[in-house]
Amino acid sequence: MFDFMSWGKRNRLAQIVQPDGKCLMLAIDHGYFMGPTHGMEQPAQAILPLLPHIDSLMLSPGILSTSVSPLLRGIGWVLRASGGNSVLEEDIDNEGLILSAEEAVRLNASAMAVSVYVGADHQHQTLLNLSNAITQASRFDMPVLGVTAVGKKLKDKKEKRYLALASRIAAELGADIVKTYYCEGFEEVVAKTPVPIVVAGGPKLETYRDVLELTYNALQAGAIGVDMGRNIWQSSHPAAILQAVRAIVHDGATVEMGLEIVADLSNEATRRKELFEVTREDMAVSAIH
């Protein structure tokens, strides 16, 4: 999969993609534009029971520094490198680079993640963000994850034609892996993108079955893994659903097998505790993008 790359880049990617060619990433970077997102108000506490079950974390530099122990081993770090906006804006596509490749190396990152907003008002700017990050990262053999983001105005663009366009452009600019959304006909998106694809979990789905079906279908269609966030840490039993997702990604489990894992592991000890009052506005904000 990465045989043509340099030793240093392949070594970093091996912290994200396991020897079976699959990966399970936990996304907790939502706070870079959402703030203290419901379920991730206190990141250090929220991720603690989840770390044993993931291959890598996608997070912002500040949360890595404040909420993750430097003694932790066996997990890769994919650092959010684009940002500069918030949910208070009309749209969220007006981003710049917030992390240099040099700083990512200092933080011992496995990769940098840069969002592109194809078709949005700031399309040109975000595509150059990705290109500039790739140029910087090449000096250090640092992999770059291109994220095909959709803003508030483009939230209905999770369909084949758009995702194939955005994913291919990210690959053309030099992204080593593309993170995008699952859609009907996803096999075609994979076939038209010449680098591995990781599927985003997106806003919280209604049921555990929905989460597991998303994971299973994405893998069957050719994705190398998933990057789940709100569908894990906003759920009632985060560690239970995460282990079920892992079984599908790495063990070839079916959806029904995953549901059995969730049922077996769901109990009061694994139930997520609500630390703060959650309003309708909180839930609405956390469903953006």
Structure notes:
This protein has an eight-stranded parallel β-barrel, surrounded by five helices. The chain is 39% helix and 14% strand. The protein has one domain (7-286): Aldolase class I (TIM Barrel), CATH 3.20.20. The two termini are 30 Å apart. The protein has 13 helices and ten strands. It is α/β, with parallel strands linked by helices and 289 residues long. The longest helix has 16 residues, at 123-138. Helix 9 (208-220) packs parallel to helix 11 and helix 9 runs antiparallel to helix 12 (255-265). The radius of gyration is 18 Å and the shape is globular. Helix 7 links the parallel strand 7 and strand 8 (177-180).
Q: What would you say about this model in short?
A:
The chain has 289 residues and is an alpha/beta fold.
